[in-house]
Amino acid sequence: MMEQSRVLTTRDGAHISYRVVRGKTPRRVMVLVHGMASNMTRWSEFVEETTLTVSRDLLRLDLRGNGRSISRGRITMEAWCEDLAAVLDQEGYSRAVLAGHCLGANLAVRFAARYPSRTEGLVLIDPLFPRSFAGVLKKVHSIKMLLTPMIALVRILNRLGLYRRNFPLLDLRELDRETRALMAGQGASKALVKRYSSLCFDRRFLPMAAYLQSLRELLRPLPPLENITIPMLLLFSTGKIFSDPAIARDLCENLTNCRTLELEAHHWIPTERPVEMREAIEQWCRELPF
Asked: 195: domain CATH number?
């Protein structure tokens, strides 16, 4: 089955780029959502390698502000949820399983709370809970009120015509390949942080307005997970770069209909543990009642 590229034009004029692998007959769909300062190529390796295409359609998208969905307009969790719902409508899907990494996991939770009848299940890969923030993310959270005036200033400058016109597309599949080679030589932590946790690096690929608004949305509290009763798979890293894994696990230990797996990684499970991640998702999907 060939993956097809599509574009959705939203009611407010934004262009949302996405790709979909579809079967010849109607099937259930899994939506793959990327993380902070990322794009749909985060899932390229997964789509190429997974056996899920035998039984499910796969849809991945560039969130508004990222990848080929570049935008300097208003970006919120609610806007992202509406974009995702509109993409599902355009493709004729009434419900979906959502799989997200980092910011994408937080968005998946938000979507499930906003559209419960449209969400069949959740795969949350390193979701970030404010109570479990660690490292630089904890420091940024302490000054989060500064983001609002910063965003306002940047958007004013944009409206005055002060902004970059062109952004190269970041290929996460290629970046992962290079980073894995470096991890063996200079150490995993140094190689990962330099490429996946650097404002200077990220700013090459998306507008500052989009970056700051995405960061603000990442810092927002999540809807209570205990109110979500659909099947869930939670994959946590053991590292403490952005989140304390012990606190994160405690926040999820009493959830019903939920499976939790901890993987030896700093935070970027799709980069550090792609095979284990893929196999865990495939096994979980095989055991779903639908």
From this structure: 3.40.50.1820
Supply 243's token pair: 């989140």
Determine how many CB atoms are found less than 10 A away from the CB of residue 39: 25
- Write down how long the chain is: 290
Judged by DSSP in three states, 26 sits in: coil
In which band, very low, low, confident or very high, does the pLDDT at 11 lie, cut at 50, 70 and 90?
very high
Place of tokens 């992202």: 80
Stated as kind and residue range, the H or E segment containing 58 is strand 57-61
Name the token pair of 178: 């290079």
For residue 245, CA distances in Å to 65, 158, 192 come to: 29, 39, 18
Domain count, the chain: 1
Q: What is the CA radius of gyration of the chain?
A: 18
Domain containing 150: what range? 3-286
d(CA 286, CA 290): 9
Looking at residue 77, what is its pLDDT? 98
In degrees and rounded to multiples of 5, residue 43 shows phi and psi of -105, 10
Closest CA to 172 of 39, 276, 267, 70: 39
Residue 220 is given by DSSP the state S
Instruction: Express each pLDDT in 60-87 by its tens digit.
Output: 999 999 999 999 999 999 999 999 999 9
Residues 6+ away with beta carbon under 8 Å from 220:
77, 106, 130
Q: What is the pTM of this model?
A: 0.97
Rounded CA-CA distance 215/142 in Å is 13
**What is the spatial order of strands in the sheet that 3-9 belongs to?**
3-9, 15-21, 57-61, 29-33, 96-101, 119-125, 232-237, 258-263
